């Protein structure tokens, strides 16, 4: 029995010794962050960004990692070219001065083997604030078409746009915005 316990301990330590962070490159074709807000109470408007890049590093054994995402703010897609241009103006994203939105994190939170949150900093329009993304799904497995390991997740957070100097028309157009980030990434 003592020998069995020693072997089990050695096996578990060898797994930890071989565990290493894995780097995944964000798949921009399947990572389209979106935001939604109330428009005068009439409806909930939904828009997205069409250009995203970045890397995710995760060590699933040590339960650590990092996230580095860059969103091209000029790729905002509201469904209307005229409105896209409007919200790229100074009152909102001001893409002439601030063409990128970034999210950086060095803190992944796990509940057992399940990733449940990412604590990081969101920078929009030159303003950086702490934002915790709640992870509603997380899966890593071999990609059936690419024949490489891949990880995907859905994450969400609520922010106030006024905290990023984008509060024009609040409260008529809601100050609270829900961010949803569906992300897919492929191992380097």
CATH class: Mainly Beta
* Helical proportion, percent range: 10-25%
Cα separation of the termini: 42 Å
* Annotation, overall tally of beta strands: 11
Largest sheet, strands/sense/barrel: 8 strands, antiparallel, barrel
Helix-strand string: HEEEEEEHEEEEE
> Given the structure, what is the number of helices?
2
Mean pLDDT: 92
What is the CATH fold-level name? Answer: Lipocalin
Q: Give me the Rg, rounded.
A: 20 Å
Number of domains: 1
Low-confidence stretches: 4-17
CATH level-four homologous superfamily name: Lipid/polyisoprenoid-binding, YceI-like
Report the portion of residues in β strands. over 45%
Label the overall shape: elongated
What structural class is derived from the secondary structure elements? mainly beta
Sheet with most strands: strand arrangement: 1-4-5-7-8-9-10-11
Named CATH architecture = Beta Barrel
Sum this structure up briefly.
The protein has 188 residues and is mainly beta. It is 13% helix and 53% strand. The longest helix has 17 residues.
Question: Which terms would index this structure?
Answer:
2 helices; 188 residues; mainly beta; Lipocalin; 8-stranded antiparallel beta barrel
Task: Report on this structure.
- By secondary structure, this protein is mainly beta.
- It has a single domain (20-187), classed as Lipid/polyisoprenoid-binding, YceI-like (Lipocalin), CATH 2.40.128.110.
- The protein is built from 2 helices and 11 strands.
- An 8-stranded antiparallel barrel has the order 1-4-5-7-8-9-10-11.
- The protein is elongated.
């Amino acid at each position: 029995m003592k020998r069995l316990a020693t072997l089990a301990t050695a096996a578990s330590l060898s797994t930890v010794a071989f565990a290493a962070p894995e780097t995944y490159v964000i798949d921009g074709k399947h990572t389209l962050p979106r935001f939604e807000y109330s428009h005068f109470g009439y409806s909930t408007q939904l828009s997205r960004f069409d250009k995203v890049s970045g890397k995710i590093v995760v060590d699933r054994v040590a339960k650590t990692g990092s996230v580095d995402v860059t969103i091209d703010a000029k790729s905002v897609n509201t469904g209307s070219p005229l409105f896209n241009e409007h919200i790229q103006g100074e009152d909102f994203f001001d893409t002439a001065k601030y063409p990128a939105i970034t999210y950086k994190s060095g803190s992944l939170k796990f509940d057992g083997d399940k990733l449940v949150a990412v604590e990081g900093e969101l920078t929009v329009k030159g303003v950086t604030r702490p934002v915790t993304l709640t992870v509603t799904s997380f899966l890593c497995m071999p990609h059936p078409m690419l024949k490489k390991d891949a990880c995907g997740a859905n994450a969400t957070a609520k922010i106030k746009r006024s905290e990023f100097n984008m509060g024009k028309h609040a409260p008529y157009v809601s100050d609270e915005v829900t961010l949803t980030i569906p992300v897919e990434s492929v191992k380097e």
